[in-house]
Design goal:
Length: about 325
């Protein structure tokens, strides 16, 4: 498959694994890259910029294909040395960065000077256009279906992607709700140059998380995600477990929700432990509506081959037959 994304990133298939806190480690990123997609390490999963440098080295030992690093710039309770993480990335020789959260403009000169291609992930057309204007090489358009932070506009990819195709000049990835060949073919049909997947890659053999978490996602339906933090205008889509439902109940109480009221339930440390020990009701974890389309735990190679094969069959057989003659 050849698209502007495969050309720009130097990869075989237009399939990217988006940054995932606690999940985007060298095991997963290298497996995706070895399978012909683009694997992405998550910078803030590493406790310090020095650890990130080591993780990049570890990934390099596991693959000789291109891979990227995600830098998520969000307001945090504990200050994060973003500049130092950005410098670690720029000095490591990694060729691709996925930025997300706040405006990445302050970091662009550093990345550009290092010859890095920047993919900015955003949830609206206005932010996509801004990313193009400030010099990002590509955007990842994250629809309302996505895991993590879908923004507050609630616009699905059926609308966002054609709008992006009409308005953007730079290549873009469809992100959110994608997990199979139908999704890839549809995204390409709507004008995207490739797809970005989080949840689907979380449920693969190489994802470095507990098997129970993967199995819970296999067993889940499209109704098993919840939108928490709506009342704080910082919406996050997570797996609808006991803790997510407790958070929703607190947010539904009359009056303003204070972060203090839910802080214990949603602690990052508990979420991290949950992914490691498989205790499903210990904390929260991000998951997208695409869990409804996930019913196995394949290796990344098998998954990518299947998606590409199915997408090609849809394009060459089903769609061709509809327009032939
Ligand atoms: C467990 C998990 C953790 C995530 N953490 C981050 C993150 O730290 N930074 C970020 O930019 N996106 C994060 N995401 C979002 C993904 O990169 C991607 O945009 C999203 O999963 C796409 O939607 P999908 O899950 O429907 O494929 C996370 C997603 C998941 C499933």
């Amino acid at each position: 498959m050849r698209t502007r994304v495969t050309e720009l990133l130097g990869i075989e298939y237009p399939i990217v694994q988006g940054g995932m806190q606690w999940v985007g480690r060298a095991e997963l990123a290298s497996a995706v890259s070895n399978a012909g997609g683009l694997g992405i390490l998550t910078a803030l999963t590493q406790p310090s910029p020095e650890d990130l440098r080591r993780e990049i080295e570890r990934c390099r030992e596991l693959t000789d294909k291109p891979f990227g690093v995600n830098l998520t710039i969000l307001p945090t309770i504990k200050p994060v040395p973003y500049e130092d993480y950005a410098r670690a990335i720029a000095e490591s020789g990694v060729g691709i960065v996925e930025t997300a959260g706040r405006n990445p403009e302050p970091f662009l000169p550093l990345f550009k000077e290092a010859g890095i291609k920047v993919i900015h992930k955003c949830t609206s057309i206005r932010h996509s256009l801004k990313a193009e204007r400030i010099g990002c090489d590509m955007v990842s358009v994250d629809g309302f279906e996505c895991a993590g932070h879908p923004g507050e506009d609630d616009v699905t990819n059926l609308i966002l992607l054609p709008l992006a195709a009409r308005r953007l000049k730079i290549p873009f990835l469809a992100s959110g709700g994608l997990g199979d060949g139908r999704g890839l073919a549809a995204a390409l049909a709507m004008g995207a140059d490739g797809i970005n997947m989080g949840t689907r890659f979380m449920v693969t053999r190489e994802a470095p998380i507990h098997e129970s978490v993967k199995q819970a996602m296999v067993d889940a339906s499209e109704l098993d995600t919840a939108l928490i933090y709506r009342s704080l205008r910082n919406t996050a889509r997570v797996f609808k477990n006991e803790i997510a439902q407790q958070v929703l109940a607190i947010e539904a109480q009359p009056g303003e929700t204070r972060f203090e009221d839910i802080r214990e339930l949603v602690s990052g440390a508990k979420g991290k432990e949950l992914l490691e020990n498989g205790e499903l009701d210990q904390g929260i974890w991000s998951a997208g509506m695409v869990v409804g389309l996930i019913d196995d735990i394949p290796a990344c190679e098998e998954l990518i081959q299947r998606i590409v094969k199915d997408a090609k069959a849809i394009i060459n057989d089903r769609l061709q037959a509809m327009v032939a003659g």
